[in-house]
Every structure is written in structure tokens, then in C-alpha cells.
């Protein structure tokens, strides 16, 4: 039987928070007011660490940044961002981890709370064929349409990751129970619902709460970004 390998992205496969770095990049381009971004980010990060984040509100803010600019300009900025920020941040141990699952023939999917516009090419950089991410509404519903700033569907955050994985597998005519082994790699306490739902949870450079849970339950703890 085939195995299922699920990966969180930020601070798991990447040693950075891609959404935060994207915001900083937009500030540098003059596309976002620095004070507005820093004030909002301080609040989001504090709530994220505390496990109290109103994620739908956060997603609307992030998607709203996209809605302020034409798609052609966003696409050009994204290309620059990937080249200058993301690609230099990808570390060999993270690539090797993903490659091992791909070579084994596992069904691989990145499940991230960052929006698809930003993470789709990052998934491509890791050669991961499937991506579940926050979905933003576009004018006319086209993949390359202008963003409206509205959130579509269930966000891939907290227990929402289980919902989205279940829906995705159902579309493929599959269930998690159909796999001989299900593994999920994450750094965050906010991913405990999905970590608890798989047969092989793995904590990657985990936050303090997740590290404590992993150690108490005997889950593997790995470090992909050690100097």
C-alpha cells in the first residue's frame, strides 16, 4: 500500500515564514505601508504563538494585500521574491526529506496556512505535486484573475487542515485509512489536530508547546535547519 506524506511549509520545509517575508518584500517595493504591516504582523504573530489567532481575519488581511495591486504586477513581484528570498532559503536537508518520500512513491502534499498565490511556486520548487493552501477569491473565479481580497472555503489552519486533507483525498476517491502509513511534518502547536490524526507525526524544529507534546508522546523530533 502507498504511504501519505504531508508537510507544513513555513518553519518546517522552509527556515522562514514565507508570508511574513512576502509582506516585508512588499513594503520594500513601496506596495504596503510599513507601519500598517508591522502593526498587523505583530498582532498576528503574538496570537499565532499563543494559539488564539482569528485566522479568517488574518487571511482576509493577507489576501487584501493582493487585492490592492494588479495581477501582472503581483506576478512580477512574486518572481523576484522567489528568486531573491525563497530559493536561497531552501536547505539541503529539507530537499532530501521531500525527495526521500517522492522516491518511495508516497503521495506527497504540502498543507500550509499561507495563501496559494505565494506557495504554489514554492511547492513546485520542492517538486511536491499537491498543495493545500489558503484560497483567495478572484474575479471570475479564474486562476490568474485579479484578487478580490475574499477568502474561499475552509482555511488550511488548525483543524481546518484535517477538513481540507479529507476533502482532497475524497476527491481522489481515497481516505486516510486507505494508506499503510500517514506522516505529517510540522513545527507548530497550531498543527496538533492534523499531527494527532496521522499515524506518524513528526515535529520539525518545533515550538516549545509542540516540543513538549512530542517528547511526552514519544513523537520523533527532527532539526532540518541546524547550523
Automatic annotation (TrEMBL):
It is an enzyme of class 3 (hydrolase). The keyword Secreted does not apply. GO terms for molecular function: hydrolase activity; metal ion binding. Its EC number is 3.1.3.3. InterPro entries: HAD-like_SerB, HAD-like_sf, HAD_hydro_SerB1, HAD_sf. Keywords: Hydrolase, Magnesium, Metal-binding. This is Phosphoserine phosphatase SerB1.
Amino acid at each position: 500500500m502507498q504511504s501519505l506524506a504531508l508537510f507544513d511549509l513555513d518553519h518546517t520545509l522552509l527556515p522562514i515564514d514565507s508570508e511574513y517575508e512576502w509582506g516585508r518584500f512588499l513594503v520594500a517595493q513601496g506596495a504596503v505601508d510599513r507601519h500598517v504591516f508591522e502593526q498587523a504582523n505583530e498582532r498576528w504573530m503574538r496570537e499565532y504563538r499563543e494559539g488564539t489567532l482569528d485566522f479568517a481575519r488574518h487571511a482576509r488581511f493577507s489576501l487584501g494585500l493582493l487585492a490592492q495591486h494588479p495581477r501582472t504586477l503581483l506576478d512580477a513581484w512574486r518572481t523576484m521574491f522567489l528568486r531573491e528570498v525563497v530559493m536561497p532559503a531552501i536547505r539541503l536537508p529539507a530537499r532530501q526529506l521531500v525527495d526521500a518520500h517522492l522516491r518511495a512513491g508516497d503521495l506527497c502534499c504540502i498543507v500550509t496556512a499561507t495563501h496559494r498565490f505565494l506557495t504554489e511556486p514554492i511547492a513546485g520548487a520542492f517538486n511536491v505535486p499537491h498543495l493545500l493552501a489558503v484560497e483567495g477569491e478572484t474575479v471570475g473565479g479564474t486562476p490568474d484573475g485579479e484578487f478580490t481580497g475574499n477568502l474561499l472555503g475552509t482555511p488550511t489552519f488548525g483543524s481546518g487542515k484535517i477538513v481540507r486533507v479529507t476533502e482532497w483525498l475524497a476527491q481522489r476517491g481515497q481516505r486516510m485509512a486507505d494508506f499503510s502509513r500517514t506522516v505529517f511534518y510540522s513545527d507548530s502547536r497550531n498543527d496538533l489536530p492534523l499531527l494527532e490524526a496521522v499515524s506518524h507525526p513528526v515535529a520539525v524544529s518545533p515550538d516549545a508547546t509542540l516540543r513538549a507534546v512530542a517528547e511526552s508522546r514519544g513523537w520523533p523530533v527532527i532539526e532540518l535547519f541546524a547550523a
